[in-house]
Amino acid sequence: MAAYVNSNMKLFLLFIYCVCSAEEFNAQDYLRREHTLTKPYQGSGMSVPLWDFVGNTLVTNSHIRLTSDHQSIRGAIWNNVPCYVRNWELHVNFKVHGSGKTLFGDGFAIWYINQRMKMGDVFGNADKFVGLGIFLDTYSNHNGPHNHQHPYVSAMVNNGSLTYDHDDDGTHTQLAGCEAQFRNKNYDTHIAIRYTQNELKVSLDIDNKNEWKECFTVKDVLLPVGYYFGVSAATGDLADNHDIISVKFYELDNDADKDSQPYTGLPAAKNMESPRDRVDENKGSYIAGNLTGWKLFIVIILIIIGLCVCGVVGFVVFQKRQENSRKRFY
Ligand SMILES: *[C@@H]1O[C@H](CO)[C@@H](O)[C@H](O)[C@H]1NC(C)=O
Ligand SMILES: [Ca+2]
Fold this sequence. Notes:
- Residues about 15-25 and about 275-290 have low confidence and may be disordered.
- By secondary structure, the protein is of the alpha+beta class.
- It is elongated and about 115 Å long.
- The strands form 3 sheets. The chain has a 7-stranded antiparallel β-sheet with strand order 1-4-15-6-8-9-10, with no helix packed on it. The protein has a 7-stranded antiparallel β-sheet with strand order 2-3-16-5-11-12-13, with no helix packed on it.
- It contains 2 helices and 17 strands.
- Calcium ion binds next to loops.
- Keywords: Disulfide bond, Glycoprotein, Golgi apparatus, Lectin, Membrane, Metal-binding, Signal, Transmembrane, Transmembrane helix.
- It comes from Patella caerulea (Rayed Mediterranean limpet).
């Protein structure tokens, strides 16, 4: 009897131990320091370990300001350790704020690309990039109505051949996107980018509820290992403060992948979203829609006329027969 209780007790303790150590493992061992940026940012000197800065980027005790609320400036931070983790999740705690009530911009981008520190016109980074870009676009450059509101979060995968089209807010090259009111909040705002088994999932925590809400998921996204993480921002005629508070990188690799070779080809994505309708295309389909409406109307009128003719003819024939039968009887 005693032995029985004892073994049960052992099992119970083992169970408790497993649960506790599993939790510890989740919390600690998955966070990879070499791709992470948290406070305090500075090491011994002015430099920040593992991360490099370009453009107007400014490091303070509480945040890393990629751009201040001034026109036509750019800034970026770049992790200087290439990423060889295949399945990962990146959490970025950010703050976009400024004095503009209705006019502000342009936004910022989170990158996983092959070349670091190249400044350019895509939210501060060079165009024709090779890799993944997640855009948090605060300003609609589109002339005329969009199918969506701004701020807008979207993803683009590029093998170096595509150009980001600002005039369309990148809608013709995006994989997917969602609207997100993340600007001028007096609480913490976060974005999570999860890449597992060739699936890209972007979630947001911007409602002060401390929970992730899915923005979009795209399957069949191929990203090679060995690229770099970075965050860049730009202002143009319109401006905003684009602040990064932290970047946390979690490894999600599992044993199932251990036997296969990691992907080393060019970035590729199958499910590029079909281009959104432009305004003139919309007008075209509107007229076309009306024409089919008219055609349908005419067809219905013809059917009604046809039925009336049949009815009248039938009635006349019926009358004639009645008369004929009367004539026979009388
Ligand atoms: C690069 O991407 C473009 C557009 O998605 C595609 O048409 C082209 O075939 C790709 N090139 C290579 C070498 O994969
Ligand atoms: Ca834009």
